[in-house]
Amino acid sequence: LTLMETYLMQIADSQGAAISQEFQANLNGSDIISDASGIITYTTTETLADITIKYHNLVVFSQQAFTLSNQSINLNQQVVKINFIGCYTDSINVTYNNTIRPTECSATEYFIFVADQQVSVGGIGYNATTQAITGTTFEITATIAMNLAPVQFQLNDSTAQLNQTFQLTANQINYNCTQGVCGFLPTNKTTSISISYNNVSVFTDNISNDNKTLIITQKVATATVTGCTTVNVTYLGTTYPVPCTVPVSFPAPTVDGNITFLALNQTIVVQYTAAEFVNFETLFAATIYTVEVSLTVGGQLLNTSVEATVNNQTFVVGTGKFNFSTVYNSTQLIVQRQNLTVANATLNTSVQQTVELQKLLIVNSSVSATIQIGDANTTGLSQTVLMPQNGTSIKVSAAGFDTFETQIDVDKFTAFENVLQVNLNVSKIMLQIQFNYTNMTQQFEVQTTNENITCNGSCLIVPTEQPIVVRFKGLVVYNATSTGVINITQKVVSFNSTAKQYNLTYGNETTLQNGTMAMLAPAQDATSINIL
Fold first, then answer.
1. Record's superkingdom (predicted)?
2. How far apart are CA 444 and CA 454, in angstroms?
């Protein structure tokens, strides 16, 4: 009689370390579940048994072993435990060691570890992910993070694909839809999006990430204007100021009406009916004639500010060019500078125009004067006229100043504004020096506040209200104001001596002198002069 004995079998890794996990075992056809510490308890009378051990249905040990003793079973296999995040409960495919296994994101998958193998995970709506698996423990844990794949879909209307450029907003991020194809990066399986076309909202709703086509039912009206810079577009009672040539769109109307374009006082009205709006976009176009005018002088573009008046509007032109709009084929242009008309021309608005301006002549005077240019006459510091004909006389005159006269040489003036600066000279007076009212011819030195000159009895001087100082042989003989005639009453005594040096006693004063000597005549008779 053989008694049944109970034995314990510890499941361990390849290094003999106990594995604290639950295993499924089969000994000679009998299924046994280990406890949480990896110990299998069994009874047997057999010396040998076919033992199979599984971990999460993966066979990690299968061979004959002795059974009539407590023992440890060392596992040479490793297991890969794979968790998934970021993909909710969606279906995914896991590939490891050439094995493809469909599963769900919320599940945990186990594989027999194979060195140098990578795990790949993919699924509809997700980016494929590949990760290397390495480890030395019996159970190697890997967590695969799944990312939602970019969403892309085609915009259609009720009849065909749309190829316009749209603006998409998803997850508070703005995207452009090129040729009707939209795409964005999702953060959830469904996304609230809004789509607009040229600032008109055409779609707002939640869509799933697997959407491939989106039907746009909102129709739009788009208006464009050419030939101007800015335009006011009035539609359904609302006015929109927009740049010309930039399309402006509106929700398609449900009733008949019109679109009004207003630019530079030019108005164009386009009628429409609600039945016209069949396609996604209905276009309306208007044309306002625009002409660029170049203002030149001598063929060169003007760089002086002028006022140009056309179509009852005045433009300040500082760069030599300006644009204006009109609905007429021709119009009149008047250009002015300093209230003088330098151009008066009829413009053909169908082509660009170049207008040559008349030149200006500006005569400036250094003092207020009478300025006469041909027949034009004014009093002041300056006069501006249209450039006169060649040879026209110019005369600038003022009381107390010499008159300036010349004739115009037009070829010398090439600018738009040509300045002739006239500095008038003060008119001089004749100064006559007399002695006892008899004209003198001797040489005198005359000093005024304006000049120092030599006078041989008479000379021209600049008038002055200050005293005039007259010297004769270095002696002041006159110091007073004068209006033209100076009568000298002071006499001068002069003499020559052959002595190289001598003491001169004149009155009560003695000085050392040499050669010629001059002195003011004494005021009293019998004044002595001694030479020693």
1. Eukaryota
2. 6
Q: For position 524, what pLDDT does the model report?
A: 62
Residues 158 and 174 occupy one common structural domain: yes
Claim: this prediction has a pTM higher than 0.85: no
Render pLDDT for 245-277 as a digit per residue (tens, 0 to 9): 889 999 999 899 998 888 767 788 888 899 889
Which of residues 74, 108, 132 is at a domain's end? Answer: 74
Place of tokens 């009205």: 269
What Rg, from alpha-carbon coordinates, does the chain have? Answer: 58
What value does the mean pLDDT of the chain take? 89
Q: Which two tokens stand for residue 20?
A: 């604290």
Collapsing DSSP states into helix, strand and coil, what is residue 323?
strand
- Please, how many CA atoms are within 13 Å of residue 174, restricted to the half-sphere of its CB? 5
What is the extent of the structural domain holding 201?
151-215
Residue 14 pLDDT exceeds 70 = yes
Phi/psi at 274 (5° precision): -60, -30
pLDDT at position 523 over 70? no
Strands (E), 387-516: 393-397, 404-407, 417-422, 429-435, 438-439, 443-447, 452-456, 458-461, 468-472, 475-480, 485-488, 492-495, 502-506, 509-513
Contact 62, 77 (CB under 8 A): no
Pairing of strands 79-85, 109-112: antiparallel
Residue with tokens 């361990």: 12
